[in-house]
Amino acid sequence: MSDSPVIDSVSLAANTPDVAQPFALLGLKDDEYAQIREILGRRPTSAELTMYSVMWSEHCSYKSSKVHLRQFADKAPKSDALLVGMGENAGVVDIGEGWAATFKIESHNHPSYVEPYQGAATGVGGIVRDILTMGARPIAIMDPLRFGLADAPDTARVLPGIVAGVGGYGNCLGLPNIGGEVVFDASYGGNPLVNALCVGVMRTDGIKLAHASGAGNLIILFGAKTGRDGIGGVSVLASATFGDDGQPAARPAVQVGDPFVEKVLIECCLEIFEQDLVVGIQDLGGAGLSCATSELASAGDGGMLVWLDQVPLREASMSPEEVLASESQERMCAVVAPDKVAQFLAVCEKWDVVATTIGQVTETGRLEILWNGELIVDAPPRTIAHDGPVYNRPMARPDSQDALIASSANDLARPSSPDELRATLLQMIGSPNLADKSWVTDQYDRYVMGNTVLSQPEDAGMVRVHEDSDLGIALATDGNGRYTALDPYAGAQLALAEAYRNVATTGARPLAVTNCLNFGSPEDPAVMWQFAEAVRGLADGCQILGIPVTGGNVSFYNQTGSTPILPTPVIGVLGVIDDVTRRTPHALVGDGSLLYLLGDTSEEFGGSEWANVVHSHLGGVPPKVDFAREALLADVLINSSRDGLIDSAHDLSDGGFAQTIVECCLRGNVGARIIVPAGLDPFTFLFSESAGRALVAVPRTEEIRFTDMCAARQLPFARVGVVDVLATELEIQGQFSVPLRELRAVWSATLPALFG
Amino acid sequence: MAVRVGIVTFPGSLDDRDAQRAARLAGAEAVPLWHGDPDLRGVDAVILPGGFSYGDYLRCGAIARFAPVMDAIIAGARDGLPVLGICNGFQILCESHLLPGALVRNDHRKFVCKDQRLRIENASTAWTSGYATGQEIVIPLKNGEGGYVASDATLDELEAEGRIIARYLDGNPNGSYRDIAGVSNAAGNVVGLMPHPEHAVESLTGPSTDGLGFFSSVIASVLSSTLATAR
Fold first, then answer.
1. Cβ–Cβ of A450/B202 closer than 8 Å?
2. A351 → closest Cβ in B11, B113, B205
3. Which residues of B lie inside 8 Å of A (Cβ-Cβ)?
4. Which of A115, A394, A583, B1 has a CA-to-CA distance to A524 between 20 and 30 Å?
C-alpha cells in the first residue's frame, strides 16, 4: 500500500496534459472544460478542476440568469438610500439616524427536500452569515415556505422537518422570526421551496466588504472546523434536477448545521467589527473555501497565497480537493493586517472560536494554493469567481399558454344564495393556504431581542432598530406561483405590489427590494421564458415604484423529472418607519370605527384562491397591476398611520375581502357588520382578488379628515361597515352572518388536523 | 444608589440583553457578568437568562452549571443572594441543585412560542413580592424543553411549602407536572421560571407589561433587606 496519494500539482498537470479528468461528473460541459484549459494554458489540476466546477455551477455563477438579471441594474431607479448595491453579499440601504440596514433572501430548496431539518436549518444559517459579513448585527429572519398539497403523504414528512429546522436554527441563534409564508400547491410536492430572509443593522460607517487588499495582510479562517459534509452541494444538489423517482444524488451533499457555533461566531464577529480588526471579510457558504478565496482575491488589489494544509479539519484524511469543496457550516474568512492579528486572535479566544491563519494577500495577481509545500492551484482568481460561462439560453413562450389563458376563471360556477356564500367563505378560510398558520409560527421565537413590534400574521414584520430610538424597519415577502404561471411578467409584478403594499399597510415607507427567483430547469425554453418575463416584470415594476433591487438569489432546477414547479418569484420589500409607536396592526380594536375599503374591486378570479379551493382550477389572466395606484394607496396608508387617522389596516390579497375581514375580526376578537357596497355583487365583493386594495378602520372622530384626504388624492374609497366590539359575529348584511367562534374553529383547525 | 442586578452571559445565551433591559426599566442598574469570570462585581441579585448555553449539548444547562461564574452564584444563593433563572436559567438552577426537579422535552415534542396566561401562586418570594397571590398575568412562553418534572414526594413538598410560585392557565403548554411554570427554593431567594417576564416589559414589544413585577420585586426585596441590615 502506498503511503499517501499522489498530489496532482501544477507541475504534474503541466507534464501530463493527456490525463483524463472527470469534469462531466463534476457537472462541467465539454466546452466549459475546454475553456478552463485555455485559461490555464494546460489541464487543470484536480484541485483547480474542483474549484472551477463548483464556482461555475449554476448556483454560484448565475450562468443562465446573468444576462437577464442585468436589468435590475440597468433599470435601477435613482435612490439616495442605496449604500451598497448588487454584487456584494447583501445590499445595504440608509434608513436614517446614522443607521443602515442590510437584507437578502436566499433559497435552500434542494437540500431541504433531501434532508428537511438540516436543509432548512442551514438555509437560515447561510443567509444570516451573509448579513453578518456586511458588518451588521442580524436582527430578524423570515421564511417563505412552499410545499406540496397539504394532505399529500410526503408533505407530512417534509413540512414538520422544515419547520423544525427553521425554528431549531433560528431560535438557537436568538433571532426573532417575524414573518414569511406557508403555501401549498401540488407542483411543489417533489420540490419544496425553502426561502430564508435575514435583515441586519449597523451604523452607516460600519459597512464591511469582501475584499482581500493590501499585500502582506493575512487570511484568517475562523469558526467551525472543515469536514466532509456538503461536498459539492451547489453543483450536485442545487444545479441539477431530481430524477423521476424524486431521488437526489447524494445524502452527504447536505450540510449539517450547529447553530450554537454560529451564535458564538456572530458575537465574535461583532466584537471584531467593533474593534475594527478586519480589512475584508467573507462567509463560507456554497462552494466553501473555493468561493471565499477566489471571491476575496478577485475583489482585492493583488493576489492571494493559501496554505491549504493549515485548515483545521474534522477528519485528517481529507484530500485538498475535499477541503476546497467542503460546505461545512459556520465558517468565516477574514483579511487582517499583521498588526491586528494578535488582537483578532484574542477576541476569537474569548469566544472559544478556532481561528487559523491560512494565507496572505500577495502582489502576484494570482490565486496560489499550496498543499504541504506543493503548488496545487495557480490561476487568475477572477476566472474562477466571475468569468464563468454566460449562457443566453433559448426561450419560448409555450404553445399551451394560450389555452391556459383562454380557460377563464370568471366563467366558473359561482355561489349566489346567502347560504352558498356563507358555505364558500367557511370552505375558503379553512383551506390550507388561507387557514391559520400558527401551527408553524408558534414554533418560532418572535420575542427574542425585545424589539419585535409586529410579527406573523401581520401584513409585515416590524422591528425597532435600537431601544433608544423609535426608528424601525418593516419587511414583507410575497409570491404567487399561480398568477405567475398565467402571466410571468404580471405575476412577478403582483408579488412586488403585494409586498410593497404589505409594508405600507403597517405604516412603513418601502425602500428597497430583494428577490428569490424559484424556477424549473433553465434548459427548458418554456421555463426560461417564464424566468425572463418575471425578471423583466420585476425590473420594470421596481423602476416605476422607485425602489431598487439590492440583491437576491436565483434557484433553478426546481422540478421533478420534466415537470417544473409553478414559476415562483418571491419578493421581499424593506421599508422604514420613523416612529414604530405609530405602526398600524391589522386587529380590529376601536369600537364603532368605520371600515373603509380603499381601491377598486372588479371581477378578477384568474389564479385566485377561490378558483383553486372550490374548482381546483388554474386559468385565465391574473389581476391587473397598477403601480401608480399602489404608490397612491401606500402614501395614504403611510400618512394615515403617521397622522393617527386609522386604528387598523389589512391588505386584500389571496382570498379577497372575505379573508381580510375574517383575519381582522379574529385578530382583534371583535365582530363587524359589513355592507356590500353599491355596484358590486356580493360574490365579487367577497372573493375577487383585485390588486391595489386595503381595508382600514377609521375612528369616527377622524372620518372626515380621512375621507377628505382620499378624495383630494383621488383614491377610490367605499364605506363597507363598522366595528362592533360587543358583537360576537361577522355579519354580511342582507346575506349571512357567522359567529366568531365558528370562524375561529374552522380557520384554526386545519393545520393541526393535518400535522398533529 | 440603584440596586445592581447582574445578568450572566454564557456562550449561547440569547435573552441576556432583554433581561438587562427589563432590569433597567424596573429601575435597577444592569451589570453584565461573564460565564468565565467568577467575579460577581458586587451585584445585589443575579439573573440567569434564557438561551441555549453551550449549545445545550449533553443536556440543557448541564455544562453551564460548571461555568466559573456558577461557583460564586451557587455559594451566594445559599447565603441568600436573590437568583432568578429564566427558561435556560431555570434549567441551569435545576442542574446546579439550587432547585429540585428537572426540565424535559415538551410532551408534544415541538418548540412552542406563545403568549401564556399564568397565576402567581406565591407572592412572598424575592422575585414575586410585587404581585398578589392569585394574580393572573400574561407573558411570553418559548421553549423546547420546558416540561417540569419531579417525584411525587418532591411535588407534594413544593406544594406544602408554597414553593410553586406560578402555574399555567388555559391549558398546559409543555406537559409540566401539576401545571408548574416556576418554583422557588425554601428560602424564597432562588426562583426558576420557564416563561419569559423579560419579554413583557414594554407594551410596544410584548403582549403586556406584566413581566416587570419580577424585576421590581427583587429591587424592593434588596432594598428592604438592606434597610433591615442598616437597622
1. yes
2. B11
3. 11-12, 14-15, 17-18, 21, 50-52, 54-57, 110-114, 140, 142, 144, 196, 198-199, 201-202, 204-206
4. A115
Q: What is the second-level CATH architecture of the domain B4-230?
A: 3-Layer(aba) Sandwich (3.40)
C-alpha to C-alpha distances, A357 to A220, A270, A289, nearest whole angstrom: 4, 19, 14
DSSP A624: P
**Residues of chain A neighbouring B173 (CB-CB closer than 8 A):** none
A97 to chain B nearest CA, in Å?
Answer: 20
Residue A248 CA to residue A337 CA, distance in Å, equals: 44
Place of cell 441539477: A240
Q: Do B111 and A443 touch (CB under 8 A)?
A: yes
In a 10 Å sphere around its CB, with 0-12 CB exposed, 13-18 middle and 19+ buried, how is residue B175 labelled? middle
Which residue is associated with the grid cell 425554528? A167
Residue A460 near residue A505 (C-beta atoms within 8 A): yes
Greatest extent of chain B over all pairs of C-alpha atoms, in Å = 52
End-to-end Cα separation, chain B, in angstroms: 17
Burial class (CB in 10 A: 0-12, 13-18, 19+), A387: middle
CA distance A563 to A524: 10
pLDDT at A4: 59
Cell numbers 372550490 correspond to A614
**Residue B231 in this model has a pLDDT that exceeds 70:** no
Average pLDDT over residues A53-72: 93
Its ipTM equals 0.96
- The answer to whether the Cβ–Cβ distance between B112 and A442 falls below 8 Å is yes
The number of residues in chain B equals 231
Angle at alpha carbon of residue A425, lines to A423 and A426, rounded to 5°: 65
Q: Is A224 helix (H, G, I), strand (E, B) or coil?
A: coil
B60 tagged catalytic? no
| Distance from the B60 Cα atom to the nearest Cα atom in chain A, whole angstroms | 12
Residue A108 among the catalytic residues: yes
Spatial contact of A142 and A475, defined as CB atoms under 8 Å apart: yes
pLDDT tens per residue across span A647-692: 999 999 999 999 999 999 999 999 999 999 999 999 999 999 999 9
Q: Which of A20-29, A535-544, B87-96 has the lowest mean pLDDT?
A: A20-29
What cell does A407 get? Answer: 380557460
